[in-house]
Amino acid sequence: MTAPRLALLASPAIEAQAALAQLEREFGAHPPAEADVIVALGGDGFMLQTLHRHGALGRPVYGMKLGTVGFLMNQYRPGDDLLARIAAAEPAVLHPLEMRAQTESGASVESLAYNEVSLLRQTRQAAHIRIALNGEVRLDELICDGVMLATPAGSTAYNFSAHGPILPLGANVMALTPIAPFRPRRWRGAVLKAGTEVRFTVRDPLKRPVSATADSHEVRDVTEVLVRESRDRHVTLLFDPEHNLEERILIEQFTV
Q1: Which end of the chain is more exposed for a tag (fewer CB within 10 A), N or C?
Q2: Is 1 domain-assigned?
Q3: pLDDT tens for residues 37-71?
Q4: Which positions are catalytic?
Q5: How many domains does the chain have?
Q6: Is 45 annotated as contributing to ligand binding?
Q7: How far apart are CA 116 and CA 103, in angstroms?
Q8: Structural domain contains residue 181
Q9: Pair 56, 76 in one domain
Q10: CB 252: neighbour CB atoms within 10 A?
């Protein structure tokens, strides 16, 4: 059986670059478009960067943690048989969120998010945001620092720090979570079906400007943001069987 061709990518971190040099000596260097598997060396930020840059190629991605945070990564263990680990890895299929943002200037900006789409106030003025689900207004005015819609993979990141729920993979749901809500005081968010179309409308955008961010892509001065889960696009992450992504999400729910 022919060994898979690996595209080796690394963050600028010293440890990641050193590991990259070692692995290139062992496996050679293939561009992502010509590889069978993409190996990402770094933290979660670099993994997201890799997915945004190369996700359309349809190659599975095996990450190894050589950065600050590595929830989406496997442990880096020098000396292990990397090809054997990849062959035994379990796949996790992720569907990104599709964001379409309208700006005050009339521009329409589209982007993808594998973790979350978040709306945040741009000034000291609290944001006033209307929320509609599948065309029906569910919350006429949320007064807050912001609000986000998170995927299950992203539910343990910014969403969790904002007291949103941790979502299991495969549940076909998304987390709608307010960020420092002021009114209504008792609203703590919602868990939505994955097919739900969420429309955020910024009320009084001139006095209370709001930005929208899809993972790390920020759009400022938005007036309306439409978000839905993509069913056509997906990426496949590979995880070691003893610590796959589903298990990590489960562990997070019992971590105190």
Answers
A1: C
A2: no
A3: 999 999 989 999 999 999 999 999 999 999 776 78
A4: 44
A5: 2
A6: yes
A7: 19
A8: yes
A9: yes
A10: 13
